Amino acid sequence: MKEVIIATKNEGKVREFKAMLEPRGYDAKSLLDIGYTPEIEETGQTFEENAVIKAETISKETGKIVIADDSGLSVDYLGGSPGVYSARYAGEEKNDLANLKKLLKELEGVEKEDRSARFRCALALCIPGQETKTVEGSVEGYITDEPRGTNGFGYDPVFLVKDKDQTMAELSSGEKNKISHRAEALKKLSALLDQA
């Protein structure tokens, strides 16, 4: 199996990557698995810029193939927020529950048809000695009035998937890994990985 480093300490993301990469012959390791603890400053204005910053930083320090993602939630009623600030929406400490509460408070009283949103994911693939490549994926939906489901992480419990009557957190991991923004981006990335 080829080793690939996933530039994250988020266990939820790592599980999703492992589930998608291992059948393709990749041994996915997180930053925690390799003992990498420094915070990487995400100074980009877009998901793509932040993914590239993370992938190139880790690849330079380890000399290994690195996949980095930057992803988040864009809510139309909020002008695209929380966007690149999704993980720290309620403050610097990255608290999923606080983020959910803040989002639901901001959408109080807003009708369902005005609560349209999408999860977006940019993936950057950095292979030592090659130019960094990026792909994007997204999934459309709506923000619910209250959390539903216990699977997933982040905003999953309040993201009602378009054309389904389930939130991301009500889907099984297998179902989520077929339709998620990360799954779509990873499908696009597969072709690039096959050339690695």
UniProtKB/TrEMBL annotation:
Its cofactor is Mg(2+). Binds 1 Mg(2+) ion per subunit. The active site is at D70. Pfam families: Ham1p_like. Substrate binds at T8, K9, N10, E11, G12, K13, S71, F153, G154, Y155, D156, K176, H181, R182. The keyword Cytoplasm does not apply. SUPFAM superfamilies: ITPase-like. Transmembrane segments: none annotated. The keyword Protease does not apply. It catalyses: ITP + H2O = IMP + diphosphate + H(+); dITP + H2O = dIMP + diphosphate + H(+); XTP + H2O = XMP + diphosphate + H(+). InterPro entries: dITP/XTP_pyrophosphatase, ITPase-like_fam, RdgB/HAM1. Keywords: Hydrolase, Magnesium, Metal-binding, Nucleotide metabolism, Nucleotide-binding. Its EC number is 3.6.1.66. Mg(2+) binds at E41, D70. Pyrophosphatase that catalyzes the hydrolysis of nucleoside triphosphates to their monophosphate derivatives, with a high preference for the non-canonical purine nucleotides XTP (xanthosine triphosphate), dITP (deoxyinosine triphosphate) and ITP. Seems to function as a house-cleaning enzyme that removes non-canonical purine nucleotides from the nucleotide pool, thus preventing their incorporation into DNA/RNA and avoiding chromosomal lesions. PANTHER family: INOSINE TRIPHOSPHATE PYROPHOSPHATASE, INOSINE TRIPHOSPHATE PYROPHOSPHATASE/HAM1 PROTEIN. Homodimer. Belongs to the HAM1 NTPase family. This is dITP/XTP pyrophosphatase. It comes from Bacillus haynesii.
